[in-house]
């Protein structure tokens, strides 16, 4: 099977923060891959902007190094890299200053899509929006891409939304959450809504519970002081885990279109019950030999910020009444693995002697590693010796099912940037969604602060604190193993 790449319209993409970590690791190598695939047309151009003084040649050299360091096999395509670098320019601009804007205005062309990627600290979003307008660089057709964190609570998110709304219509604002750009996340929607098989079972009659795990092996070393102001709840749950929860739990949208999908996601967030403090566990990783503890990494010996959180939540609607959703995420865990598991109920009655209530169907959606979906089903163990049952996965791993085409699975960032150019907001968060998510998370965080809640220690390389295991054991359930 050969994948079909549909070229997007020619564009001028300005990357504010074009010299930063995100631009170098993800955005620019990703754009090169889209160029190589033919999706980014040769008429398109990319303009880096940041305060550092640099000319076009210096920026091109920086991007060539970034492709060399962070690109995949495509970094050997030397001729294509040279062509791609030719599409790049650089303008020195301080978001808070007046220099450079006229030059940027002079670089922008009419008749192509204009997009502005705000890959800078959120405190600069307002300055950028204001100056893009003052210098008539942005027009009513332009798009802006904004990075997380989108606020640190409801109040700051509202303020940020209001600032951007002063210059851009909601249809022009693309709040990026790269989890939504993952192939498997979109495949989750295809599996749910493209098959007759699953939707009839997707409710409290057949689903026992749902688990969402996003586990990392890295700690916060390097960015500890920054992370300490945020914690796992703000950094992961409010955005990535809640977005996954929405996609798994939402009602079928009438069409696969931006506002239809986002309306359904918003309804899920609004139906989330406040979380009881007994149903939430926070943790901090302990020191392990030479490997520092969370508090050492955060350079804050009295820190109460969590590097791990696990919780049980409920969605108050007809479909999900009584079905617990267990979420957990943490750093320094036993493996780097992200997964959503839909665990179906036991058979009401087993006709096989000795096998009562042993088998459960589980639909596991793996985001990393080995993106793919598998359905655990029960079959007869092959061979003689009577009717013995075993559980086997029906594996829908892309590389096996799709062969060569899976090699072209696009990285989340580059897919989402192409969606921006196409003007497709389906996989981006709308302002009201972000605010609703903060409205749900704020009271949880405020509760911790009021109670001076102390996170539990957990061993590096483990599955989190014992209390997190108890959270499920108490309910007669257990977490799935975190496998890398
Ligand atoms: P970074 O490495 O610190 O880069 C910041 C960039 O902004 C640099 O290019 C810097 O260049 C530029 N900059 C700083 N102040 C500026 C100003 N006043 N005017 C114009 N440009 C300015 O940060 P990053 O890691 O790339 O992150 C960028 C944004 O993405 C942040 O909001 C971050 O939270 C978000 N994000 C990052 C990641 C990631 O993996 N890195 C992941 C998710 C979200 P100069 O110093 O030359 O101006």
Distance between the termini: 29 Å
Residue fraction in strands: 15-25%
Q: Would you report the number of β strands? A: 15
What would you give as the CATH superfamily of the largest domain?
A: Dihydrodipicolinate Reductase, domain 2
GO molecular function, one term: NADP binding
InterPro entries: G6P_DH, G6P_DH_AS, G6P_DH_C, G6P_DH_NAD-bd, NAD(P)-bd_dom_sf
EC number: 1.1.1.49
Keywords: Carbohydrate metabolism, Glucose metabolism, NADP, Oxidoreductase
Overall description:
By secondary structure, the protein is an alpha/beta fold. It is 35% helix and 19% strand. The protein folds into 2 domains: 11-147, NAD(P)-binding Rossmann-like Domain (Rossmann fold); 180-410 and 431-473, 2-Layer Sandwich (Dihydrodipicolinate Reductase, domain 2). β12 and β13 (372-380) form a beta hairpin. 41% of the residues are buried. The model has no long low-confidence stretch (mean pLDDT 93). Bound molecules: NADP nicotinamide-adenine-dinucleotide phosphate. NADP nicotinamide-adenine-dinucleotide phosphate is lined by residues 16-23, 50-52, 93-96, 119-122, 124, 147-149. Belongs to the glucose-6-phosphate dehydrogenase family. It is an enzyme of class 1 (oxidoreductase).
């Amino acid at each position: 099977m050969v994948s079909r790449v549909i070229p997007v319209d020619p564009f001028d993409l300005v990357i504010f923060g074009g010299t930063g970590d995100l631009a170098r690791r993800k955005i620019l190598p990703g754009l090169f891959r889209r160029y190589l695939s033919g999706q980014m047309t040769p008429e398109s151009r990319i303009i880096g902007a940041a305060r550092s003084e640099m000319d076009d040649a210096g920026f091109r050299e920086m991007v060539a190094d970034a492709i060399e360091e962070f690109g995949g096999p495509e970094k050997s395509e030397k001729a294509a890299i040279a062509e791609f670098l030719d599409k790049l320019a650089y303008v020195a601009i301080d978001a808070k200053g007046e220099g450079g804007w006229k030059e940027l205005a002079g670089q922008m062309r009419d008749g192509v899509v204009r997009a502005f990627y705000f890959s800078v600290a959120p405190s600069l979003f307002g300055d950028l929006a204001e100056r893009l307008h003052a210098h008539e660089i942005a027009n009513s057709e332009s798009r802006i891409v904004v990075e997380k964190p989108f606020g640190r609570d409801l109040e700051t998110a509202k303020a940020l939304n209001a600032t951007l709304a002063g210059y851009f219509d909601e249809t022009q604002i693309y709040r990026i959450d790269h989890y939504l750009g993952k192939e498997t996340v979109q495949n989750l929607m295809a599996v749910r809504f493209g098959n007759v098989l699953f939707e009839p079972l997707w409710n409290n009659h057949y689903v026992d519970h749902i688990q969402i795990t996003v586990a990392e092996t890295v700690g916060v070393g390097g960015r500890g002081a920054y992370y300490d102001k945020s914690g796992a709840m703000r950094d992961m749950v409010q955005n990535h885990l809640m977005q996954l929860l929405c996609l798994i739990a939402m009602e079928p949208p009438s069409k696969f279109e931006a506002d239809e999908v986002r309306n359904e996601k918003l309804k899920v967030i609004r139906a989330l019950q406040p979380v009881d403090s007994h149903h939430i566990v926070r943790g901090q990783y302990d020191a392990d030999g030479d490997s520092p503890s969370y508090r050492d990494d955060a350079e804050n010996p009295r820190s109460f910020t969590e590097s791990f959180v696990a919780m049980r939540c409920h969605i108050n609607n007809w479909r999900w009444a009584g079905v617990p959703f267990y979420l957990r995420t943490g750093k320094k865990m036993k493996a780097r693995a992200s997964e959503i598991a839909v665990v179906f109920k036991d058979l009401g009655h087993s006709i096989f002697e000795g096998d009562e209530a042993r088998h459960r169907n589980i639909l596991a959606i793996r985001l990393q590693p080995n993106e793919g979906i598998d359905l655990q089903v029960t079959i007869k163990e092959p061979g003689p010796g009577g009717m013995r049952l075993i559980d086997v996965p029906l594996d829908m791993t892309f590389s096996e099912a799709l062969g060569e085409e899976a090699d072209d699975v696009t990285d989340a960032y580059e897919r989402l940037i192409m969606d921006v150019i196409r003007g497709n907001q389906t996989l981006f968060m709308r302002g009201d969604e972000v605010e609703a998510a903060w409205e749900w998370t704020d009271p949880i965080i405020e509760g911790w602060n009021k109670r001076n809640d102390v996170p539990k220690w957990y061993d590096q390389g483990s599955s989190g604190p014992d209390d997190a295991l108890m959270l499920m054991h108490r309910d007669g359930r257990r977490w799935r193993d975190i496998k890398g």
